[in-house]
Amino acid sequence: MNPIVYQIAFLFIAATVGGFVARSLKQPLLPFYILAGLLAGPILHFIEPSVTILSLAETGIAFLLFIIGIDLNLSGHNTKGKIIWYSAITGFIQIILFFVGGIFLGRVLGFDTLTSFYIACAITFSSTMVIVKILSDKQEIFTVHGKAALTILLIQDLFAIIAIGFITSIGNFDFAQTGFVFLKIIAIVVAAIVLNKTVYPKLFKFVAKSKELLFLTTVAVCLGFGAASQLWGLSIAIGAFVAGVSLSNLKFSFEMGAVVRPLRDFFATLFFISLGLLVIPVAIKENWVIILAIILITITLKPLVIFIILNFFKFRSSSSLKSSFAFGQVSEFALVIGGLGITYGHIDNNFFSVLTCSLIVTVIISTYLISYSRFFTEKFLSLAKKIERDGSEDISEAKEKAQIELKNHAIIFGYHRTGEKITETVKKIDIDVLVVDFNPDVIDELNKANINNLYGDMGDKEILEKANIENASIVVSTIPDTRQNTMMIKETKTKNPKATIYVSAKEVEEALELYKAGADYVILPHFLGGLHTSLLIERFAGDQEQLIKIKEEHLKELKKDIKKHLKNGRA
């Protein structure tokens, strides 16, 4: 058997077992992927890390950022720039503080300046792979805290590339070479813009007729830009991200993302498994002090500093907390930089294992911090609000439409698609509607439609109070978050026992739990879909013509819906 095929097969079998365990324990998958690699490699010695495996793992980062780029659709978003600029400045300040602090930490612990440089890189940069994947899975990329996190990450990645350029030119480093790195990035961006304006529209209109050809062309664009970027001494991830952004405003961008996602999941899983393969147990024992220092600073101090800076720029406390919780890990760039350090003789394999171990531990811990950020935000929110600056309500740039003492109204949490249909129905029966959503672009859309709205999170009790939940007649949550829904039900039943509460769930077990908490009805999409189909079969059995009429009405509604959402940039 081909050794690479054997290694990949074994790693995915181990990851599958880890996934089953994670699912059974209702835990995030990423830590168990890493533990699977750790078990297969350093503990049981079934697999040794190879250049091929690690190269394939790096491709996972490229595909992840490529899809994020596609999903951005910058032309369709209404953010005026305040979030982006303040977040970029936050990233810049954080990088300076932690890079200088990392050098100082290394020197205090007895390392030379060059080795201290690698320590500084470890505590300065955060994992694009982890943050983007979890925020994407939670559908929080385009929230205020998601946009802030993504912007800070891009600034960090840009400086990580500069650090790579510094490593490859130690001894003859100059500003001209640093400027040349920026020129390369600009050249790639310009090439992407030219292709977007001239080649892509006609090309993808043609290839979209075949799903296979669409898949191949999309992958070719992603890897083509990634390869060009790497050929020029930059990161493959930067080229892939630029490629994704260049496709984001095309008519078929949604389908492009859909066909590439399985490939992304394959390579991303391989990346997290490969982390466990890189650990050298002996090196951990010898360097436990520096490992512990990196872990503690990364998990505690870095999120705290980012929170303080975002708070200074008048981000809401909830958004600042959620953004800052995302940054409590070492970046995969630390491994890229560390690998170069070994190549150039700056550090040895033992110190590289220090970086690897720090990355693994912080990734595992931060996975829980990001996955359960709403829970941790609730715990720290009252403390955070004590230092929140006046005027912090305005940072979202999505001005919520003022409510004039709404009573007997319907509150709808989450507007996208499901909430939008419910809003239309409630308005038809002459009940005032208030929509609560934490996507600033959605809030802008609601303002244009003259629909009462609040920017905020259902998990924030202050938002529930502001929505006047004690006087609402109907409360609907389209957000399938069991913990948040349970909290909302409890709060509503306490203040307004007469309100009718509809909530959403993904699984039957979750639905039963929500009914037990006091929900009047739990929306299970697959159950309702089956029920609706059954009613159609019963109603139109033997009457094909009537079913065709229903089909035509449905198609007309779907086309109207997709046209509207493409116009608003959120298809």
Write the layout of secondary structure elements.
Elements: H1 3-24, H2 30-43, H3 51-72, H4 82-108, H5 113-124, H6 128-137, H7 144-167, H8 175-198, H9 200-207, H10 211-231, H11 236-247, H12 253-277, H13 281-286, H14 288-312, H15 317-325, H16 333-343, H17 349-371, H18 373-385, E1 410-413, H19 418-428, E2 433-437, H20 440-448, E3 453-455, H21 461-466, E4 474-477, H22 482-495, E5 500-504, H23 508-517, E6 521-523, H24 525-540, H25 544-567
Parallel strand pairs: 1-2, 1-4, 2-3, 4-5, 5-6
Helix pairs in contact: 1-2, 1-12, 2-12, 3-6, 3-11, 3-12, 4-5, 4-7, 4-14, 5-14, 6-7, 6-17, 7-15, 7-16, 8-11, 10-11, 10-12, 14-15, 14-17, 15-18, 16-17, 22-23
Report the major sheet. Answer: 6 strands, parallel
Mean of residue pLDDT? 82
What Rg do the Cα atoms give? 25 Å
* Overall helicity: 55-70%
Percentage of residues in strands: under 5%
Shape: globular
Q: What fold name goes in the CATH topology slot of the largest domain?
A: Na+/H+ antiporter like fold
Domain count: the total is 2
Treating each run of at least 4 consecutive H or I residues as one helix, how many helices? Answer: 25
Unreliable residue stretches: 76-80
Alpha-beta classification: mainly alpha
How many runs of DSSP E, i.e. beta strands?
A: 6
Under CATH at level 1, the class of the largest domain stands as Mainly Alpha
Q: What is the end-to-end distance?
A: 45 Å
CATH architecture of the largest domain: Up-down Bundle
